[in-house]
Protein backbone atom coordinates (compact mmCIF):
# COMPACT_ATOMS: atom_id res chain seq x y z
CA UNK A 1 0.00 0.00 0.00
CA UNK A 2 1.27 3.51 -0.81
CA UNK A 3 1.80 5.54 2.36
CA UNK A 4 2.33 9.34 1.95
CA UNK A 5 5.58 10.73 3.27
CA UNK A 6 5.21 12.72 6.47
CA UNK A 7 7.47 15.76 6.58
CA UNK A 8 8.30 18.11 9.42
CA UNK A 9 5.28 19.68 11.13
CA UNK A 10 5.44 23.45 10.97
CA UNK A 11 4.68 25.62 13.97
CA UNK A 12 1.00 26.69 14.06
CA UNK A 13 0.38 30.38 14.46
CA UNK A 14 -3.42 30.57 14.14
CA UNK A 15 -6.61 28.69 14.91
CA UNK A 16 -6.94 27.88 11.21
CA UNK A 17 -3.44 26.47 11.17
CA UNK A 18 -4.28 24.34 14.20
CA UNK A 19 -7.43 22.89 12.59
CA UNK A 20 -5.67 22.31 9.28
CA UNK A 21 -2.84 20.43 10.90
CA UNK A 22 -5.25 18.40 13.02
CA UNK A 23 -7.12 17.30 9.88
CA UNK A 24 -3.87 16.44 8.10
CA UNK A 25 -2.54 14.54 11.09
CA UNK A 26 -5.78 12.53 11.47
CA UNK A 27 -5.72 11.57 7.77
CA UNK A 28 -2.08 10.51 7.93
CA UNK A 29 -2.66 8.43 11.05
CA UNK A 30 -5.63 6.72 9.40
CA UNK A 31 -3.51 5.76 6.39
CA UNK A 32 -0.70 4.51 8.60
CA UNK A 33 -3.18 2.49 10.66
CA UNK A 34 -4.61 0.82 7.56
CA UNK A 35 -1.14 0.00 6.26
CA UNK A 36 -0.07 -1.38 9.63
CA UNK A 37 -3.05 -3.71 10.00
CA UNK A 38 -2.82 -4.89 6.41
CA UNK A 39 0.85 -5.74 6.89
CA UNK A 40 0.09 -7.38 10.24
CA UNK A 41 -2.67 -9.55 8.72
CA UNK A 42 -0.45 -10.68 5.85
CA UNK A 43 2.34 -11.41 8.29
CA UNK A 44 0.14 -13.55 10.50
CA UNK A 45 -1.17 -15.52 7.52
CA UNK A 46 2.31 -16.06 6.17
CA UNK A 47 3.59 -17.16 9.56
CA UNK A 48 0.79 -19.65 10.19
CA UNK A 49 1.70 -23.12 8.83
CA UNK A 50 -1.93 -24.09 8.37
CA UNK A 51 -3.14 -20.76 6.97
CA UNK A 52 -4.85 -21.03 3.60
CA UNK A 53 -4.84 -17.83 1.57
CA UNK A 54 -5.89 -19.31 -1.76
CA UNK A 55 -9.11 -21.33 -1.69
CA UNK A 56 -7.64 -23.75 -4.23
CA UNK A 57 -4.36 -24.35 -2.37
CA UNK A 58 -4.93 -28.03 -1.58
CA UNK A 59 -6.15 -28.95 -5.06
CA UNK A 60 -3.23 -27.08 -6.62
CA UNK A 61 -0.80 -28.96 -4.37
CA UNK A 62 -2.47 -32.29 -5.15
CA UNK A 63 -2.27 -31.67 -8.90
CA UNK A 64 1.34 -30.49 -8.67
CA UNK A 65 2.55 -33.57 -6.79
CA UNK A 66 0.29 -35.93 -8.72
CA UNK A 67 -1.36 -37.68 -5.80
CA UNK A 68 -3.56 -37.19 -2.73
CA UNK A 69 -2.02 -37.67 0.72
CA UNK A 70 -4.57 -39.47 2.88
CA UNK A 71 -4.23 -39.88 6.64
CA UNK A 72 -5.59 -43.19 7.94
CA UNK A 73 -5.21 -45.66 10.77
CA UNK A 74 -3.06 -48.69 10.02
CA UNK A 75 -4.64 -51.43 12.10
CA UNK A 76 -8.44 -51.16 12.10
CA UNK A 77 -10.08 -54.13 10.41
CA UNK A 78 -12.62 -53.13 7.81
CA UNK A 79 -11.79 -49.44 7.94
CA UNK A 80 -8.09 -48.98 7.30
CA UNK A 81 -5.32 -51.51 7.59
CA UNK A 82 -2.12 -52.42 5.82
CA UNK A 83 -0.83 -55.95 5.37
CA UNK A 84 2.74 -57.27 5.45
CA UNK A 85 3.13 -56.51 1.73
CA UNK A 86 2.12 -52.88 2.16
CA UNK A 87 -1.36 -53.29 0.64
CA UNK A 88 -4.02 -51.02 2.12
CA UNK A 89 -7.68 -51.93 2.49
CA UNK A 90 -10.82 -50.75 4.27
CA UNK A 91 -13.78 -48.42 3.93
CA UNK A 92 -11.75 -45.30 4.69
CA UNK A 93 -8.99 -46.43 2.34
CA UNK A 94 -11.48 -46.96 -0.48
CA UNK A 95 -12.98 -43.54 0.12
CA UNK A 96 -9.53 -42.00 -0.33
CA UNK A 97 -9.12 -43.93 -3.58
CA UNK A 98 -12.47 -42.57 -4.78
CA UNK A 99 -11.31 -39.06 -3.88
CA UNK A 100 -8.11 -39.56 -5.89
CA UNK A 101 -10.13 -40.81 -8.87
CA UNK A 102 -12.41 -37.77 -8.67
CA UNK A 103 -9.60 -35.23 -8.26
CA UNK A 104 -6.93 -36.73 -10.51
CA UNK A 105 -8.66 -39.38 -12.63
CA UNK A 106 -6.92 -42.39 -11.03
CA UNK A 107 -7.70 -44.27 -7.83
CA UNK A 108 -3.99 -45.12 -7.60
CA UNK A 109 -2.94 -41.46 -7.40
CA UNK A 110 -2.87 -41.79 -3.63
CA UNK A 111 -0.35 -41.96 -0.79
CA UNK A 112 -1.47 -43.32 2.57
CA UNK A 113 0.01 -42.03 5.80
CA UNK A 114 -0.54 -44.04 8.97
CA UNK A 115 -1.36 -41.39 11.57
CA UNK A 116 -1.73 -41.74 15.32
CA UNK A 117 -4.55 -40.29 17.40
CA UNK A 118 -2.17 -37.80 18.96
CA UNK A 119 -0.85 -36.33 15.72
CA UNK A 120 -3.67 -36.69 13.15
CA UNK A 121 -5.24 -33.25 13.60
CA UNK A 122 -1.90 -31.47 13.76
CA UNK A 123 -0.80 -33.08 10.48
CA UNK A 124 -4.09 -32.11 8.84
CA UNK A 125 -4.21 -28.51 10.09
CA UNK A 126 -0.60 -27.95 8.97
CA UNK A 127 -1.29 -29.30 5.50
CA UNK A 128 1.00 -32.32 5.74
CA UNK A 129 -1.91 -34.56 4.80
CA UNK A 130 -4.72 -33.51 2.45
CA UNK A 131 -7.54 -35.41 4.12
CA UNK A 132 -8.07 -37.38 7.30
CA UNK A 133 -10.21 -40.26 6.10
CA UNK A 134 -11.84 -41.17 9.40
CA UNK A 135 -11.12 -42.76 12.71
CA UNK A 136 -12.72 -40.03 14.79
CA UNK A 137 -16.33 -39.21 15.45
CA UNK A 138 -17.73 -35.89 14.28
CA UNK A 139 -18.19 -33.67 17.38
CA UNK A 140 -18.66 -29.97 18.07
CA UNK A 141 -15.28 -29.49 19.74
CA UNK A 142 -13.32 -31.35 17.07
CA UNK A 143 -15.06 -29.41 14.31
CA UNK A 144 -14.45 -26.00 15.88
CA UNK A 145 -11.29 -26.11 17.99
CA UNK A 146 -8.67 -28.04 16.03
CA UNK A 147 -8.34 -26.11 12.77
CA UNK A 148 -10.15 -28.84 10.82
CA UNK A 149 -13.64 -29.32 9.37
CA UNK A 150 -15.58 -32.56 9.23
CA UNK A 151 -17.17 -33.09 5.83
CA UNK A 152 -20.01 -35.54 6.47
CA UNK A 153 -20.66 -39.06 7.75
CA UNK A 154 -18.99 -42.02 6.06
CA UNK A 155 -20.08 -44.52 8.72
CA UNK A 156 -22.67 -44.30 11.49
CA UNK A 157 -21.16 -46.05 14.49
CA UNK A 158 -22.51 -46.23 18.03
CA UNK A 159 -22.50 -48.17 21.27
CA UNK A 160 -24.36 -51.48 20.92
CA UNK A 161 -24.68 -54.82 22.68
CA UNK A 162 -23.53 -58.28 21.61
CA UNK A 163 -25.04 -61.48 23.03
CA UNK A 164 -24.90 -65.20 22.46
CA UNK A 165 -27.54 -66.33 19.99
CA UNK A 166 -28.45 -69.19 22.32
CA UNK A 167 -29.98 -66.64 24.72
CA UNK A 168 -32.68 -65.78 22.17
CA UNK A 169 -32.36 -62.05 22.85
CA UNK A 170 -33.22 -59.90 19.85
CA UNK A 171 -33.32 -56.37 21.27
CA UNK A 172 -31.50 -54.35 23.92
CA UNK A 173 -34.91 -53.77 25.50
CA UNK A 174 -34.85 -57.44 26.52
CA UNK A 175 -31.69 -57.00 28.63
CA UNK A 176 -33.41 -55.95 31.87
CA UNK A 177 -31.69 -57.75 34.76
CA UNK A 178 -28.73 -58.76 32.61
CA UNK A 179 -25.06 -58.46 33.47
CA UNK A 180 -23.11 -56.38 30.94
CA UNK A 181 -19.36 -56.39 30.35
CA UNK A 182 -18.08 -52.83 29.83
CA UNK A 183 -14.76 -50.99 29.67
CA UNK A 184 -13.97 -49.06 32.84
CA UNK A 185 -13.59 -45.31 32.31
CA UNK A 186 -14.85 -45.37 28.73
CA UNK A 187 -17.67 -43.17 27.44
CA UNK A 188 -19.57 -46.33 26.57
CA UNK A 189 -19.88 -47.30 30.23
CA UNK A 190 -21.74 -44.07 30.99
CA UNK A 191 -23.92 -44.52 27.91
CA UNK A 192 -24.88 -48.03 29.01
CA UNK A 193 -25.78 -46.75 32.50
CA UNK A 194 -27.90 -43.97 31.02
CA UNK A 195 -29.66 -46.39 28.65
CA UNK A 196 -30.82 -48.65 31.51
CA UNK A 197 -31.63 -45.79 33.87
CA UNK A 198 -33.81 -43.90 31.38
CA UNK A 199 -35.88 -47.03 30.75
CA UNK A 200 -36.18 -48.08 34.37
CA UNK A 201 -34.32 -51.31 33.63
CA UNK A 202 -32.03 -53.09 36.07
CA UNK A 203 -28.58 -54.34 35.05
CA UNK A 204 -25.28 -55.37 36.57
CA UNK A 205 -22.12 -53.80 35.09
CA UNK A 206 -19.03 -56.01 34.91
CA UNK A 207 -16.21 -53.54 34.31
CA UNK A 208 -12.62 -54.28 33.26
CA UNK A 209 -9.68 -51.93 32.75
CA UNK A 210 -8.73 -53.12 29.25
CA UNK A 211 -10.75 -54.09 26.20
CA UNK A 212 -8.98 -57.46 26.07
CA UNK A 213 -10.17 -58.17 29.61
CA UNK A 214 -13.70 -57.07 28.72
CA UNK A 215 -13.79 -59.54 25.81
CA UNK A 216 -12.31 -62.35 27.88
CA UNK A 217 -14.87 -61.75 30.62
CA UNK A 218 -17.67 -62.06 28.08
CA UNK A 219 -16.24 -65.23 26.54
CA UNK A 220 -15.79 -66.81 29.98
CA UNK A 221 -19.47 -66.28 30.76
CA UNK A 222 -18.99 -63.55 33.38
CA UNK A 223 -21.75 -61.50 31.74
CA UNK A 224 -24.80 -61.95 29.53
CA UNK A 225 -23.84 -59.18 27.10
CA UNK A 226 -20.88 -57.07 26.07
CA UNK A 227 -21.17 -53.36 25.20
CA UNK A 228 -19.00 -51.38 22.82
CA UNK A 229 -19.05 -49.50 19.55
CA UNK A 230 -20.46 -51.61 16.73
CA UNK A 231 -17.23 -51.58 14.72
CA UNK A 232 -15.21 -52.70 17.75
CA UNK A 233 -17.67 -55.44 18.64
CA UNK A 234 -17.56 -56.78 15.08
CA UNK A 235 -13.75 -56.82 15.10
CA UNK A 236 -13.75 -58.72 18.40
CA UNK A 237 -16.37 -61.23 17.21
CA UNK A 238 -14.32 -62.02 14.12
CA UNK A 239 -11.66 -63.56 16.40
CA UNK A 240 -14.05 -65.67 18.49
CA UNK A 241 -13.78 -69.46 18.19
CA UNK A 242 -17.25 -69.57 16.57
CA UNK A 243 -18.23 -66.03 15.49
CA UNK A 244 -21.62 -67.19 14.19
CA UNK A 245 -22.75 -67.98 17.74
CA UNK A 246 -22.78 -64.27 18.66
CA UNK A 247 -25.12 -61.53 17.46
CA UNK A 248 -24.84 -57.75 17.64
CA UNK A 249 -28.25 -56.43 18.63
CA UNK A 250 -29.74 -53.82 16.27
CA UNK A 251 -30.23 -51.12 18.92
CA UNK A 252 -27.67 -48.31 18.87
CA UNK A 253 -27.69 -46.41 22.17
CA UNK A 254 -25.33 -43.59 21.09
CA UNK A 255 -24.41 -41.63 17.98
CA UNK A 256 -20.81 -41.85 16.77
CA UNK A 257 -20.74 -40.44 13.21
CA UNK A 258 -17.36 -41.12 11.60
CA UNK A 259 -16.26 -39.28 8.48
CA UNK A 260 -13.48 -37.50 6.62
CA UNK A 261 -12.07 -34.17 7.74
CA UNK A 262 -10.11 -31.46 5.92
CA UNK A 263 -8.14 -28.39 6.92
CA UNK A 264 -10.13 -25.27 7.71
CA UNK A 265 -10.10 -22.42 5.22
CA UNK A 266 -9.99 -24.31 1.91
CA UNK A 267 -13.60 -24.24 0.76
CA UNK A 268 -12.95 -25.71 -2.69
CA UNK A 269 -11.20 -28.77 -1.27
CA UNK A 270 -13.93 -29.13 1.35
CA UNK A 271 -16.47 -29.22 -1.50
CA UNK A 272 -14.47 -31.80 -3.46
CA UNK A 273 -14.26 -34.18 -0.51
CA UNK A 274 -17.91 -33.65 0.44
CA UNK A 275 -19.30 -34.14 -3.06
CA UNK A 276 -17.15 -37.19 -3.69
CA UNK A 277 -18.87 -38.82 -0.73
CA UNK A 278 -22.27 -37.58 -1.93
CA UNK A 279 -21.61 -38.97 -5.41
CA UNK A 280 -20.88 -42.45 -4.00
CA UNK A 281 -24.12 -42.42 -2.03
CA UNK A 282 -26.12 -41.00 -4.94
CA UNK A 283 -24.75 -43.70 -7.19
CA UNK A 284 -26.16 -46.37 -4.88
CA UNK A 285 -29.50 -44.56 -4.79
CA UNK A 286 -29.60 -44.58 -8.60
CA UNK A 287 -28.32 -48.14 -9.03
CA UNK A 288 -25.06 -47.05 -10.66
CA UNK A 289 -22.21 -49.43 -9.81
CA UNK A 290 -18.60 -49.99 -10.80
CA UNK A 291 -19.81 -52.79 -13.09
CA UNK A 292 -22.51 -50.85 -14.97
CA UNK A 293 -21.20 -47.27 -14.81
CA UNK A 294 -19.89 -47.34 -18.37
CA UNK A 295 -23.21 -48.65 -19.71
CA UNK A 296 -25.08 -45.99 -17.71
CA UNK A 297 -23.37 -43.28 -19.76
CA UNK A 298 -26.07 -43.85 -22.37
CA UNK A 299 -28.90 -43.59 -19.83
CA UNK A 300 -31.72 -41.19 -20.66
CA UNK A 301 -32.45 -40.45 -16.99
CA UNK A 302 -31.45 -36.83 -16.25
CA UNK A 303 -30.40 -37.73 -12.68
CA UNK A 304 -28.00 -40.41 -13.92
CA UNK A 305 -26.61 -38.16 -16.65
CA UNK A 306 -26.01 -35.37 -14.13
CA UNK A 307 -24.18 -37.74 -11.81
CA UNK A 308 -21.93 -39.13 -14.54
CA UNK A 309 -21.23 -35.77 -16.19
CA UNK A 310 -23.00 -36.52 -19.48
CA UNK A 311 -23.87 -33.09 -20.93
CA UNK A 312 -23.49 -31.67 -17.42
CA UNK A 313 -20.32 -30.27 -15.87
CA UNK A 314 -20.71 -29.80 -12.14
CA UNK A 315 -17.01 -30.46 -11.68
CA UNK A 316 -15.96 -27.19 -13.25
CA UNK A 317 -16.84 -25.08 -10.20
CA UNK A 318 -14.62 -27.35 -8.08
CA UNK A 319 -11.71 -27.37 -10.53
CA UNK A 320 -12.45 -30.95 -11.62
CA UNK A 321 -13.29 -32.63 -14.91
CA UNK A 322 -16.90 -33.22 -15.89
CA UNK A 323 -16.52 -36.98 -15.29
CA UNK A 324 -15.16 -36.70 -11.74
CA UNK A 325 -18.00 -38.70 -10.18
CA UNK A 326 -18.01 -41.24 -13.00
CA UNK A 327 -14.33 -41.98 -12.44
CA UNK A 328 -14.82 -42.44 -8.69
CA UNK A 329 -17.74 -44.83 -9.19
CA UNK A 330 -16.20 -46.75 -12.09
CA UNK A 331 -12.85 -47.27 -10.39
CA UNK A 332 -13.92 -47.79 -6.77
CA UNK A 333 -17.69 -48.34 -6.63
CA UNK A 334 -20.75 -46.81 -5.03
CA UNK A 335 -21.23 -46.54 -1.27
CA UNK A 336 -23.00 -49.89 -1.03
CA UNK A 337 -20.14 -51.63 -2.83
CA UNK A 338 -17.59 -50.04 -0.49
CA UNK A 339 -19.58 -51.10 2.56
CA UNK A 340 -20.20 -54.68 1.49
CA UNK A 341 -16.65 -55.56 0.56
CA UNK A 342 -15.09 -53.93 3.64
CA UNK A 343 -17.68 -54.30 6.40
CA UNK A 344 -20.67 -56.26 5.13
CA UNK A 345 -21.48 -59.75 3.93
CA UNK A 346 -18.42 -59.95 1.68
CA UNK A 347 -16.05 -59.10 4.52
CA UNK A 348 -14.79 -60.96 7.61
CA UNK A 349 -16.72 -58.53 9.84
CA UNK A 350 -20.12 -59.40 8.33
CA UNK A 351 -21.78 -56.27 9.70
CA UNK A 352 -25.41 -55.48 9.01
CA UNK A 353 -25.93 -52.14 7.28
CA UNK A 354 -28.19 -50.86 10.10
CA UNK A 355 -28.15 -47.06 10.19
CA UNK A 356 -25.81 -47.14 7.20
CA UNK A 357 -28.61 -48.28 4.91
CA UNK A 358 -29.94 -45.80 2.39
CA UNK A 359 -32.66 -43.52 3.70
CA UNK A 360 -35.22 -45.23 1.43
CA UNK A 361 -34.45 -48.51 3.22
CA UNK A 362 -34.76 -47.18 6.75
CA UNK A 363 -31.17 -45.96 7.22
CA UNK A 364 -29.53 -42.55 7.54
CA UNK A 365 -27.45 -42.46 4.36
CA UNK A 366 -28.65 -40.09 1.68
CA UNK A 367 -27.02 -37.79 -0.82
CA UNK A 368 -27.65 -34.08 -1.11
CA UNK A 369 -29.13 -33.23 -4.54
CA UNK A 370 -26.56 -33.23 -7.33
CA UNK A 371 -28.04 -30.47 -9.40
From TrEMBL:
Q: Which GO terms describe its biological process?
A: amino acid transport
Q: Does the keyword Lyase apply?
A: no
The record, for PANTHER family, names: AMINO ACID ABC TRANSPORTER PERMEASE, AMINO-ACID ABC TRANSPORTER-BINDING PROTEIN YHDW-RELATED
Enumerate the spans annotated as Solute-binding protein family 3/N-terminal domain.
Answer: 67-296
Q: Does the keyword Signal apply?
A: yes
Q: What is this protein called?
A: General L-amino acid-binding periplasmic protein AapJ
Judging by the UniProt lineage, the source's domain of life is Bacteria
Family annotation (SUPFAM superfamilies): Periplasmic binding protein-like II
Instruction: Could you list this entry's UniProt keywords, alphabetically sorted.
Output: Signal, Transport
Q: Provide the family line.
A: Belongs to the bacterial solute-binding protein 3 family.
Query: What PROSITE patterns would the database entry show?
Result: SBP_BACTERIAL_3
Q: Which Gene3D superfamilies match?
A: Periplasmic binding protein-like II
Amino acid sequence: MHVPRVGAVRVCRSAGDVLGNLHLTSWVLAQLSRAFYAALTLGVLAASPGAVVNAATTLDAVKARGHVVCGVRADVVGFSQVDARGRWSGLEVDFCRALAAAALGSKDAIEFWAVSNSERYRLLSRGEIDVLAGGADFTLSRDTELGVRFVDTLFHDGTMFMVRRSQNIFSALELSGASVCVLEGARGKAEVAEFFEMRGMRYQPVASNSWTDVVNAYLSGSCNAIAGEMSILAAARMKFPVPQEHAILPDSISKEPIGPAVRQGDERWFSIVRWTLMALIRAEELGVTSKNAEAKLSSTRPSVRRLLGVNFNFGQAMGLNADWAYQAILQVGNYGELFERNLGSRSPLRLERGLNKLWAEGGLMYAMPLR
